[in-house]
Specification:
The protein is mainly alpha-helical. It is built from 8 helices and no strands.
Length: 169
């Protein structure tokens, strides 16, 4: 490929001076300059930095897919907080999601364990039984004697009932 360049006179003098110092022709100097511009950039970047950037991009994409406020392409929070309502929503950039302070993982919310109601029922029955015993034993001393309703199949509280509830606990 052949390229012709119009160079202003002051730059031409500086280029000629530089070529004389290096003892090369101006065309070789321009070739080396172009090689440096296009190839040196890629050679100078350490491999660790390239791996880090790729890893950061991958994690940003994962966070965008897992975020509660994102559908993988657009961020709902960013779209709704934009001042210009008529503007089109901007696609998510992985680095924005990587450092987002509003990130909420969808999978953590789905994995929350449901409370075990059997344990709550046992605690309720034990509390109810202990309240009945407390009123029966200490009601006279406190000056409080509520009317106790007899439920269907109601009966006296026995030590066996207490043992059974405590053992089931």
């Amino acid at each position: 490929m052949r390229i012709s360049i119009d160079i202003p006179p002051d730059i031409e003098r500086a280029l000629s001076r530089r070529c004389e110092e290096l003892s090369i022709s101006p065309s070789e100097f321009v070739n080396q300059l172009l090689e440096w511009y296009f190839f040196k950039r890629k050679r100078d970047i350490p491999r660790e930095i390239i791996e880090f950037v790729n890893f950061a991009r991958k994690k940003g994409v994962e966070k965008a897919k897992k975020c509660k406020y994102s559908d993988g392409k657009y961020c709902a929070l960013e779209t709704y907080t934009r001042l210009d309502i008529d503007a089109e929503p901007q696609p998510i950039h992985p680095y924005e999601c990587l450092f987002c302070v509003y990130y909420l993982d969808r999978s953590i919310e789905e994995k929350k364990p449901k409370p075990d109601m059997r344990e709550a029922e046992k605690a309720y029955m034990l509390a109810k039984l202990s309240a009945k015993i407390l009123v029966k034993e200490l009601g006279d001393q406190l000056g409080y004697r509520p009317k106790m309703k007899i439920e269907k199949g109601g009966r006296e509280i026995k030590k066996d009932d207490i043992r059974k509830l405590v053992e089931d606990w």
